[in-house]
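Note to self: keep these together.
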Amino acid sequence: MIKHGFKAMLAEANAVIETISVDEALGRVGDPTAIFVDIRESAERAKEGSIPGSVHAPRAFLEFIADPESPMHSEALSSGKQLILFCASGGRSTFAAKTLKDMGLENVCHVAGGIAAWRKAGGPVEAS
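Structure:
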C-alpha cells in the first residue's frame, strides 16, 4: 500500500515552487529572459503540438538534460533565463519544477493547468 501518494507529493512540491497563471505565461511569450520548457513525452508533443519556441525536455530525462555534466545536457536549461515548465495539465510540471529546484536551479516556475489551460486561453500552439 502507498504511504505517501501523489496528492501529498504535489502539495509538498507546490509549497516550494512558483506557479504562474496562464495569463502570466501568455505575457511571457517572446520574452528574451524566459524559456518555455515542454516536459511532456515526445508522442504527446508530436500529436498535440507545443508552445512556439519551447524547448523539449521530457520529464523522464529531465535530470540528464538539466545537468551540464550529462551528455544529454541542453544549454537552454543552464542559460540563466527563467524556465517556464509546462505539461498537459500541470501535474508533471509541478514535479519537474521541484526536481529542478532540488538540483539547484532557482529561476524555475510552471504553468497552472498546463497546455490544456494554454489552449483554452487562446495561447499559440505550433506543430512539433
